[in-house]
Amino acid sequence: AELRAAVRALVGNLDTLFTALGLREESFAVGTLSRVIAAELASYAPARNRRRTATNKASVIFVDRTLDLAGAVGHHGDNLAEKILSVLPRLPGHKTDVMVNMVELTALQTTDETCSIIAPGCLAQPNDPAAQALWESFMNVKQKEAVMEARRHLVEAASRENLRCLNPFGAMSLGRVTPEQLSSYIQLFRNNLKALENHCGLLQLVLAMVQTLKHPQTSKWDNFLAFERLLLQTIGESEMPSVLNQLLPMIRSYNERTKDDYSCEDFLVLLVYMYSVVGELKSGKELDIAEEKVKKALVKAICDEPEPSPVLQKIT
């Protein structure tokens, strides 16, 4: 009853808005609740009268917010910017920038990731046109093209500084660019302070990319993508209980997990994705049993975590 009242209130408000704008709308809906609202608006008596007399035409698209969740937890984006922002640690005090480890450009070689002697780099490079152009490509082109673009920028910068590079333009013709190859180009700048200063912004972005591509979370990203595609296929062919039963053996406690297994947070992300894309569920005994098994396995896994992450702490 409360939801019906809320839908009718929303429809009334929309009708008032469209009346003020003199609109004759054509409604489209994506998602279950959106269809309900669009249908309610279509049959609303004052709206019907308005559509007869209104002069301006408009298309109105209603989209369920649960579909936003599927986008936020999905791994379908093939751009580097998304991966860099997901994988690298946050720059202290910032929500949209990350810390780039700059040790590679110094004489201090340490494997300690928490080394705080060297100030971290970041993605924001407003004073470097080459870095800005590269960041645009991280956001707008596919990963493979962005990596090749990074190599092109590095090789051009190295040749401008007359840094010794073993046949860089021959290397340019090779197909695949590896993070190791990019690291070797970065090393050319290491002992040249003037070159470092001239191309510092570009080097920070390329380092961010190299560190992201080498990060174990990146291979996990590809596993997520493969699993999401399989889920979409399975959900199309069978009911939710069988999909949950497929997921069940993969939920493992801390002591049983290897580095390639999904963590508790990973499963929560997958569950949000599944329930977002599946839409309306047919409730029944089979679904209740399957959900109960998944709940028990997840609760056990969460309770067995030696150091629960901030997200898990919040949830519990």
Automatic annotation (TrEMBL):
It comes from the Eukaryota. InterPro entries: Sec1-like (IPR001619). One of its GO terms (biological process) is vesicle-mediated transport. PANTHER family: VESICLE PROTEIN SORTING-ASSOCIATED. This is Sec1 family domain-containing protein 2.
